[in-house]
Amino acid sequence: MTAPAITIKDLNFSYENSPVLTDISFSVGENSFFVIIGPNGSGKSTLLKVLAGILSSKTANIHILDKPIHRYTRKSMARTLALVTQNTTVDFPFSVLDVVLMGRAPHLGVLGLEQENDLEIANQALEFTGVEYLANRKMDQLSGGEQQRVFIARAICQQPKIILLDEPTASLDLAHQVRVMDLMEKLKKETGITVIMVSHDINLAAMYADTLLLLSRGRIACAGCPAEVITYQNLEQAYGCTLLVDQNPLGDYPRITLVPRKHLILKAQN
Ligand code: ADP
Ligand code: MG
After folding, report:
1. Which one of 31, 183, 211, 229 is most buried, by most CB atoms within 10 A?
2. Which residues surround ligand 2, an ion (CB under 5 A)?
3. What is the pLDDT of residues 174-228, one digit of tens each?
């Protein structure tokens, strides 16, 4: 049993007066690939922001590695944990290399000067995520999918112990979706990082995640290995749609198929 990378106990979170997360307690093992799934508005992004220390809850007891979250300074948090948010935009015409180099900020000395070593790490991160050919392009001239890959490169350049990604594959084409998942798996194996990802792609998640957590209306509906969580009953209850669950031909992974309405009507008529 590995030590937890994150432990969260009794989290309740509200935006003003509307409760969004209720009675959330779980832990994420160090060096695991942990995927959070759930319907729109179920609180996934809010949960990631609480884990990253961007939003705080008075009730929750949260430990990041072996330390309570409130004991982290901004800088020590950024050295420990990187967050790739949903729909990040860049307003200034920074170059791709500038944006990736920003990932070094928590590691710089008092003068904030980058060393050759920082440039090397940034170039490695660009290469690792396959965006080195964009290094000198301006961020505001890239497609959404290209920008997304640059933000992942920046998070990797930050060399965190835990990486949080909010729907990182949402704006990517098929090849880049699987590439991002492969990259995270490789990073986890090679550097011991803990990956926590929000994803809507349950079939991809089933092939990579050690643990899945299903959020529904701000509560944990269930958590466990993919086979425990990806069942017809769990998903239908949370998402309110009909689907089939069978085995992925690639291996011992559950696979879902959405069932269009016309198939339901046919079935009912036969
Ligand atoms: P998910 O990522 O699962 O789609 P979110 O965590 O973004 O869900 O949102 C959960 C709920 O909180 C939604 O009902 C959303 O409208 C609400 N919400 C999200 N951000 C804010 C905010 N800044 N202020 C008020 N309500 C918010
Ligand atoms: Mg979200």
Report:
1. 229
2. 44-45
3. 999 999 999 999 999 999 999 999 999 999 999 999 999 999 999 999 999 999 9
